[in-house]
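Question (not urgent): is this output format expected?
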Amino acid sequence: MKRRGHGFRMAESCSYPRNPDMSCIRGCARRKGMHLMTNIESLDPGDAFAQLGRIKLSDTDLNGVLQTVADLAKLTIPGASEVSVTLVRGKGAFTAAFTGDLARDLDESQYAAGHGPCLDASAAAGTMSVPQTAGESRWPQWAASARELGVNSSLSIGLPVQDTVAGALNIYADKPDAFDDDAIVLGQTFAGYAAVALANAHLYDTTASLAQQMQAAMDSRAVIEQAKGIIMGERRCTADEAFSMLTKVSQDTNRKVRDVAATLVARAAERPNR
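Got this back:
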C-alpha cells in the first residue's frame, strides 16, 4: 500500500519543536496559515481489516505496522482528517506513527501537559470522544488550541498492545460531531484488529531480538572456548585454569571476557604456522 502524504499543509519556514507548547503552535498557525486536508478517498472496512491480517512481519517491523495502522484508519473511518498512534511505555508516551505533522504535535502537547484524550484512552484502554472541541471541559486548553488549528472533533481509542506497552489510536477531524455512533463502533472495531496486529508485531520483534541475543551469546561462548583451547595448548593447563586466566585479564584490563578471548584468538590466527 502506498503511504499517503501528510494531510496538514504548512509553509516550509514554519517549523515545530519536538515538544511544542500550545502558544508556539498557535502562533505558527496564525502567522503562516494552516488547514486540514479532509480525506476524499475511502476504503471499505472489510478491505482494511484484510490488509491488517495480511501484514507479513518478516517484511516489515513494528514501526511499519504502526504506520500501516495509521494510514488505513485514515482511509477507513468516516470523518477522519488525520490519524496518529500513541504508545506508552512506563511513564513515557510518544507518537509512533502519524499521517500529518499537526496530529503528532497535538499529541505531543498532551504528553507535555501530562493529560489529554490520547493519554486517558491509553491508560483506560477505552474510548475518549470529543464531539466538539468548542466547549470541551475535560481538556479545555488543549481543545481551545486544537480548535484554533481547525480540529473541531477527535476520537481516541485505547490499544492494549502488550503487558508493558499501551497505546491509543487518535483520529482528528476538521468538522464538529464528525464521529457518529456508527463511526465510533467502526473505530473501535478497527482498533481491535489493529491491536492484534500490533501485539503480533511486538511479539515478533521481541522474539527476533531474543534470537539475536541468543546467537550473540553462542558466538561469545564459541570464541571463549577457542581462547581456552589456545591457553591450554600453550600452558599445558586445564580448562578451568585457562578460563581463570581469561577472567583475570578481563578484570585487570576492565574488558569483557569475550573481548579478551577474541583478541587472543585473533593474535593466534596471525601467528605463522610452525
